[in-house]
């Protein structure tokens, strides 16, 4: 490799996939390839129907599809890194403990990335799904972990923080999405972790050359999961809003374990003009929509909210964390509703549905705002991080 260029391995849970981590990885990989770096992606699985989106590197897969951190997978990653001489390993979502295998290795550097909010890490640990995570694994380790989390949650919280501390100390760099997340981690540990190792780099958003044709449609885009996304809230909101706006439709676009329960709830509430659409992997997702609704309890930095603004679609979201102060300009590019007031959300949504002029103004402001998240600019910040790592 030429000086200043690197062999980069991105490690993540799923690729290609619908989720934001996969999209961000694809965007960054494309820009790093344009800069001359060699980039490959290693993941646990691929999601059916997902597309690589122009990524031209190799897509590799771990041998054990049940547990990214199994001994077999750890050994596979270690051998792969040494054989292919990846100088940089970008561990997206810290999906693997591979960073423990390269402590002190000055030729192979691991950068751990946190795509969520640190304050929600203990809550996420408590939301283990017995049906989806424990039972299919047939692993004694997973059964014991489930019992530990459910019976002794306060000890689980301590375990989560200890794990985070290890992830920071054992990595060459630890990337978070906002300055507020960095401050939160520093507050937790009061100098107990190397603070210069924690770097702030937000997610990129792909540019949209021209806004798509907008119409009287409200969009939900994302996974159907209750622990974090809570799409069922939007059905209760639509119950309040839909009858007084007969020209508008509510469109769900995504996939996930809650899909059938969402369909049943829509029937039970006797909702009309509610469509469930298959996952969409490109910008056509936002065509024909004027508003994006997000009812999550927490987000790291929602790619859907950034993409919507780039496409001239106005987000209406619950206040699910400090990331909104970075990803949006509340009141100008998005409406941020106090968490988790369904009536207030319905009022704000109804007001926007009735005011085309306000929607148009916010759409223009949103497109101007997201320029700062241009993939080329974000990739350049990553390149500076790589250069700062002693290799």
Describe, in plain words, how this protein is organized in 3D.
The protein is an alpha/beta fold. It folds into 2 domains: 7-204 and 374-388, Rossmann fold (3-Layer(aba) Sandwich); 217-373, Glycogen Phosphorylase B (Rossmann fold, 3-Layer(aba) Sandwich), CATH 3.40.50. It is 39% helix and 17% strand. Strands 3-2-1-4-5-6-7 form a 7-stranded parallel beta sheet. The longest helix has 17 residues, at 153-169. The mean pLDDT is 90.
Mean pLDDT across all amino acids: 90
> H/E element string?
EHEEHEEHHHHEHEEHEHEEHEHEHHH
**What value does the Rg take, in angstroms?**
21 Å
Q: Structural class, please?
A: alpha/beta
The unreliable regions are none
Please report the distance between the alpha carbons of the first and last residues: 13 Å
CATH superfamily of the largest domain: Glycogen Phosphorylase B
Biggest sheet, strands in spatial order? 3-2-1-4-5-6-7
**What is the number of independent domains?**
2
CATH class of the largest domain: Alpha Beta
3D shape: globular
Could you state the oligomeric state of the chains shown?
A: single chain
What's the helix count?
14
Q: Percent helix among the residues?
A: 25-40%
Number of strands: 13
- Classify the fold: give the CATH topology of the largest domain: Rossmann fold
Q: Report the portion of residues in β strands.
A: 15-25%
Main beta-sheet annotation = 7 strands, parallel
The CATH architecture of the largest domain is 3-Layer(aba) Sandwich
